[in-house]
Each structure stands twice: as structure tokens, then as C-alpha cells.
Amino acid sequence: MASRLNYSFPAVRIENMSLQQIDEVRRLEQEGGLEPWLPEDYHIILQEPNLWLALTASIAEEGSPEKIIGTGLARFLTTEMELCKIVTAVGFRRMGVAVQLLHRLLDEGRHRQCRACFLEVRPSNLNAIRFYEANGFRSVGMRPCYYANPEENALIMACEL
Ligand SMILES: CC(C)(COP(=O)(O)OP(=O)(O)OC[C@H]1O[C@@H](n2cnc3c(N)ncnc32)[C@H](O)[C@@H]1OP(=O)(O)O)[C@@H](O)C(=O)NCCC(=O)NCCS
After folding, report:
1. Quick one: which atom of ligand 1 is closest to the CA of 90?
2. % of the chain with per-residue pLDDT over 70
3. Which of 29, 127, 155, 156 best tests ligand 1's pocket when mutated (most atoms within 8 Å of CB)?
4. Does the beta carbon of 126 sit less than 6 angstroms from any atom of ligand 1?
5. Which of 35, 57, 75, 137 is most buried as measured by Cβ atoms within 10 A of its Cβ?
6. Span 83-113, pLDDT tens digits
7. pTM score > 0.85 for this model?
8. Domain segments of the chain: what residues?
9. Under CATH, which number does the domain 13-115 receive?
């Protein structure tokens, strides 16, 4: 996978998500067209670092407080990992933010001896599919009627680690 860490802007800081960031992360999910996970889900996720890794990408612009512009979440099973979501704020897309989050999550999967990463995505979400394809994922199957509101199949994508 090509390294995209040479972007000069934005100067992104990637760190483990904290409890204080839950509201901002949920706003980002909503803005990105995803159904935000519940605060109680995040409370569980953040208390189970052996199973989950939630990351945030932030920038500090001069004179402004630090702002979260991206988030990524993965779950680790024994030899597989699942990429649960990845979002970049509108206005910061196509700047390599998501790819930095993705690299960090996949590196963690390798570190935990996972051999493959799976994800589900709406077939109508062409931007995400192109992002995943550009980063080594390929389509491996379909789950019928997986999503609600609106109902849609899920495309299953995977990459080897
Ligand atoms: C999908 C998403 C996370 C990509 O985030 P991003 O920060 O813009 O992605 P990057 O800048 O890291 O993109 C890296 C590469 O992926 C590919 N890519 C990303 N978005 C793309 C798009 N809309 N169309 C085509 N290719 C795309 C490109 O190859 C890109 O490199 P390039 O800009 O040099 O051409 C973002 O569009 C988003 O937040 N979408 C809404 C939430 C969502 O649907 N998430 C996925 C399901 S959980």
C-alpha cells in the first residue's frame, strides 16, 4: 500500500479517542452521512482496548482550539480485524486524512497478528468504495438487506495484512 504520510497540510495529529471526544466524534459521523454510534457504545469501546481501537485525527489551527477532522474505528478478533468506520470531515477530504487513520488501524491489526481486514459498506457509497479500493481492499461478497434507513445490501470488502 502506498504511503501517503507526506501530505504537508493539514498537519494531522492522530491519537486514541478519549471519552471527552465522544460528542464531537458523533457529530462527525452524522455530518459524514453515517448513523452515529451511541455514547454508551463508545463507553464500552473505550473500556475494551484489547478488542477495539478508536482513533481521532485532529488539527490545531493558529488561534483556534484543536478540532477533530477524522475518526476511525476497528475491532480485533483472533486472526481478523474489522474496519467498522472511517470518516473525514467535509472540507478536509482528499487530503490524506482517512488514509493516515487507515494505516494506523491496519498497522495495529498486523501488530496483533491479524491476517486480514474486513469491512461492510453500502454499495451506493461510491466515494468510500473508491477509497477502500485505492487502499488495497477488494470486494469479496454481499450481505443482503444488511442496512436499514434506507434498506440496502452490504458490500463486503477485504484486504490481506
Ligand atoms: C471515504 C472517506 C473516509 C475518504 O476520506 P478522505 O480523507 O477524503 O480520503 P483520503 O484523502 O485519505 O483518500 C486517499 C485516496 O483514496 C481515494 N479516494 C478517497 N476519496 C475518494 C473519492 N471520493 N473518489 C475517488 N477516490 C477517492 C483516492 O485514491 C485518494 O487519493 P487521492 O486524493 O490522491 O486521489 C470520506 O469520503 C468520508 O468521510 N466519507 C463519508 C463517511 C463514509 O462513507 N465512510 C466510509 C464508510 S464507514
Report:
1. 39
2. 94
3. 127
4. no
5. 57
6. 999 999 999 999 999 999 999 999 999 999 9
7. yes
8. 13-115
9. 3.40.630.30
Q: Ligand 1, residues 90, 92, 94, 120: which to mutate, most atoms within 8 A of Cβ?
A: 94
| Mean pLDDT over each residue of the chain, to the nearest integer | 92
- 144: pLDDT confidence band, cut at 50, 70 and 90? very high
Give phi and psi for 61, each to the nearest 5: -90, 145
| Atom from ligand 1 closest to the CA of residue 89 | 39
